[in-house]
Structures are given as structure tokens and as C-alpha cells.
Amino acid sequence: MNDSRKFFLIxxxxxxILPAANQAFQLKKRTPKDLPPVYRKWLEEEVVYIIxxxxxxxxxQLETDRERDLFIEGFWKQRDPDPSTPENEFKKEHxxxxxxxxxxxxxxxxxxxxxxxMGRIYIILGEPKTIEAFENLSECYPVVVWFYDGMIRYxxxxxxxxxxxxxxxxxxxxxxxxxRFGPQHLLTHxxxxxxxxxxxxxxxxxxxxxxxxVSLNLIPGEAQVIAPSIAxxxxxxxxxxxxxxxxxxxxxxxxxxxxxxxxxxxxxTNFIDCDSQANIIYDPSGIFFVHYLLEPKRLTIxxxxxxxxxxxxxxxxxTDEKGQTIYQYERQAPIELTAERLASIKTKLFSFQxxxxxxxxxxxxxxxxxNIVSKEFTSFETEITxxxxxxxxxxxxxxxxxxxxxxxxxxxxxxxxxxDIQLVPSPRNDFTRNDKLFVFSQILNLTPSQRESWFVxxxxxxxxxAVSALLKEIKSYDNWPNILEEFSLQDLPPDFxxxxxxxxxxxxxxxxxxxxxxxxxxxxxxxxxWVMSFPYPRAxxxxxxxxxxxxxxxxxxxxxxxxxxEKAYSQEPAQVKYAxxxxxxxxxEKEYARAKQIGLPFLATENRKHFLSLLGRACxxxxxxxxxxxxxxEYLSHFGTNLPILNSLGECYYRSGNEExxxxxxxxxxxxxxxxxxxxxxxxxxxxxxEKSP
Length: 694
Fold this sequence. Notes:
By secondary structure, the protein is α+β, with helices and mostly antiparallel strands. Helices cover 37% and strands 26% of the residues. It folds into 4 domains: 3-91 and 248-255, no CATH class; 107-240, no CATH class; 272-532, Immunoglobulin-like, CATH 2.60.40.2550; 558-692, Tetratricopeptide repeat domain (Serine Threonine Protein Phosphatase 5, Tetratricopeptide repeat, Alpha Horseshoe), CATH 1.25.40.10. Helix 15 runs antiparallel to helix 16 (558-571) and helix 18 (592-599) packs antiparallel against helix 19. The longest helix has 25 residues, at 3-27. Mean pLDDT is 90; it is low at 1-27.
């Protein structure tokens, strides 16, 4: 399948088949009992403690064993701590834990060790740092205390205990809960009130101080109150079971479900999560541009000798509210690095940034970024609105943690470049107190008097209320319509904040406002990416006029389509794409003579073959059938069989009086595709007419 057909297939499935598949997902619920035995065992025994609820939902939704095998492959890949090595250390350790649990736990139960409380905790948390067993004390039932530390990265306390005991002195070891049981249940002889924790604690303390402490509180260092610890209950009931879920985001599984039919097999299990954003920026030429970025969590760079490289492919599509494609594109982004450059960016994030023009309307933007070399992919989709500005208007806010002067590309269209100011945003809107908060927006469609007398107000607030405010006259901004304001964050405490920007009239009445949220971190440094982006020509370049002309054409706005397509062609009449697009538009408008005039000069160039079909249609429309036949025949000799061209060739022969040749061509067309009802009717009508003729 060639690249263009594959791309169209991807788009068709994303926007036609995928919504139906998602609807089916909502309607049809499966259970593990519906799975073949090997996959049911994998789900309910091998990964039962580490699979996330969303991953389980997706796995149950898969239709075939091939899809399930792909899912399982992706499941382990997402947890591989070092994908650069052939061995998956996480998977190896997980199955070691299962084997250990089966060998060492569950001896007092008929089931396997992995099913026991000890087996479950061991599989989730691994080897305890210390184990203390109290199994031969006459005053209490058998108790085993495990101690863990160093797991704060999983949202657990820095150190904690896990306690197991044999309730009533027999059976398997059960997970002990201070709230559910209490020290009373550890003592073999306790005759007091079962709600009297203090008495039971004192009695157990005489047996062993550690047992007494952990009987009420599993977390060292908490305030000593002789009552069961609620935090301990939260630890064992929710935090520990959630530890495996902290290791991976289930987004990868959702993407596998979405893309399993459209992404090549080698990509399907290699989804990488990403942060992303899209911003709308108005250019003085009158064009709105969509600036966007993707920051995948990982970028794999390959090595060949002293060469470090990879190849990115970006496919984007814009659809309107009816699902119709308005614009689509493909970008190739090769990356080649020196050893020194690789060393300087190795620990940094990677940000791919791009930009394209878009005409007014409401859209869905979807982009897929693929690493061709490593077979990894990520994706991003969002809603986009390009306004038809007819009244005072503030564009959505864009927050940046840094701005740079970039005179090298001044005048070019480049992601997040405004004149010679390069904005450096983060899709997470995260800042440190050492950063500046740069707020960019644009105020459009003001009259000269409004620009002189109106105001813009900034207000920063957290949950407690306003922390900063600024009121400025709009006329104080020089680079109209761009508004760039800078705020110091030095005196603000780490927190989540809301920024509101209001447009006020001369009486300070609100006309419109925009809001954005940002996070101020306690860290002194945050990870910032290295950026890959490409500069494009100036906004007035025919490159953009051609794109917008085709977008207007897709929206059936023929007047605007004509203006922009003609503009692109008139600026560069020798450019094949501009000439083809404009001439094709003219053909559809039945302006055959003008279309032919545009195509004829290309017959003397190496691009001759690209205009044969167009010239054939133009000549056919003008009634110049003999000339059209020449172009159609040459087209077929270059490109092979094409039914519409073949049928048009037959019509030209028929119109020029050569009915015999026309019938031969049409019969050949029917041999290729017998389901052409209209062509059959035409042939039958000609035969009937000939039979009636004397």
C-alpha cells in the first residue's frame, strides 16, 4: 500500500470507524470468562495485582488473539525500566516474585501462594528490608512484621510496616489492619472490652513493644495516640494496591485500542505518552496560524558508528464539525546529532513544534507523531476555534517561562515566534519562582479611539484569593495587536494559580476576558526540553495562500477559494502545485479556456505528465476532442489504467464521430469494472439507437 493510500486509510478509520468502535465499546461489556484460557490466566493470575483498571477494560475489549498478544507485549514494554536493553527487568522481577510467593506462602491453604495476602503484598512491593517473626509467643498469636522504606516515589510513606497474623492462631497469615482488628486480636488471652484499645495495647506492650506499636500504627513517626491509625488503613487499603498503577499511565492501552487497525504492527505496542498544546496566533497579514507542540515522554535516538540519528514523521488532520476533512498534511523531520550534542540533551525532554494556517471555523485537530526508526508513536487531539473577528476580541492566553530574541528568523513563520520574539512555553504551564511568567495575547478589532482609551487588566489568584493585579492602558503596548506582559514569581508561594486577563472600556467596564491556569513548583529547576521546529516563508508567501485556498474549497467557500488559489498561482505561476490547484478549481467552475491556458506552458517541462489529465478535461470541455484524445492517451501510457480517464477517452472518440473506437474503450472499461451501471446504460442506448437506424 503506498503512503498516500495508507494515510487516507488512517484518517478514514480515525474519524469514521473509530467512533463506531468506541460506541460498541460502551455497549458490549466482556468479562474474563469470555477470554480463552491462556489469556484469562494472564489477566486473573499473572498480572492481577499490577494491571490498572483501564488497562483491564481495554484488554477485555480486544477481539482477537493477535490483538491480545500485542496488548501483552505493550503491557510489559510500558513497564520496562530500560528499553535500550534486550531484557525487560520489570517483567523478569515480577515473575520471580510470583514464583517466590508460590514457593514460600500459602502452605496452610489449598490455593497457590500468589493468592495469599503475603503473596499479594510481596508481588506488589517486593522484598521487605527486614522481616521479624513472632511465632512462638504464648501471649499472642503468630505474627510476622515486614518493614519497607525508600518507596516515597510511589506515593507511599518514607518507611512503614506491614503486619500479618494468624487469626485465632490457625490458618494462613492474614493482612493485619489496626482499624479492622486492633491489638485485642493479636493477644491469645484478652478478656477486656474489645473496644478498649488502650488496655489491649498496654498488655501487648508487655509482650513486645514493637508489636504494640504496629498494632495501632504502621507508619513510624506519626503522632502517638493510643487508637488505630486511619493513615495506616489508607496505606494498606488504597495506597499499596495503587503502587503498580503509579508506574504507568493507561493512556497507552487506550491508544492501542484506537490505533490497532491503522498503525503498523511494529508501532502498535509502542505508544509513548506526551504533553501537548495548541495555540491560535493572528498574523498582521490577516491569517490565523495554529502553533502547536508535542513533548513525548521519550525520544529514542539510534547509533550507527559515530552517527546518532532518528527520523520523525508527522501526520496531521483538521476536520470540521461534520467530520469533513478541511486540511491534512505530512511532515518528515530527520534528526542527526553529534556525540557532543547528544550528551548535552540526553537528560532533557524533547519538544516538536510546528505551525500551519487555518481559516475561520470550529475544528477537531488530530496529529500523530511517529519515530520511524524506533517504531514508537504518540498522538494529540484537541478542539480548535478560528474566530471571525467582528467585535473587540482577546485571543486565548499563551503562557511562557522564557522569551528570547530571534532576529535570525524575523519575518518568517515559525512556531511561537512573534516578530523577533521567540516564546518558550511549557504544555504543563509549570514555573519555578526563579522563572518569569510571560503572558502573551492579542487584542483584535479595536477602533483607534478604543486603542487610545481602553484598558487591559491582569489578576493572579489562588484558592485563597487574589495575589497580584495589574491595570494597563492598551496604548502603552507598542507592538499592536500583540500584548506581552511579564510578571515576577519570586514572592509567590508554590501553589496552583489562575490568571485572568480582562479587556475593559474607558469606563473600566468588562468587554471580554480570558483565563489560564498555571502551577508554581517548589523546585528550583524544572526539566525543560530541547526544541525541534522548522521556519516557513513569510505569511504573504504563496505557500500559505495555496493552503488556505484549498481549505476554503473544502468548506465550499468558492469565492474565497478562488481569491487565494489565484493569488498563489499569480505569485509563482511556474510552481506545479499552485498551477494544478488553481487550474483544477477553474475546471470545476467550467472555465475550461483559462484552465487550459494555465496548463499548456508545462507541456514543455519535465512536469508535463502532471498536466495531461487536466488538459484533457479542459479540451474535452471546450469540444476540442482530438486534442483531448492525445492528452488522455499519453496519460494512460504514463500512469496505467484509470477508469475515469478511460471513459473520458471513449467519450471524446464518440463525440468526434469514432463510435467504433469509443465502444472498444468502454467495453474494456467494463471488463475492468463490470459494475458501472451508467456506462452500461450508455452502451445499451447507443446499440438500441443503431438498431433502429435504417
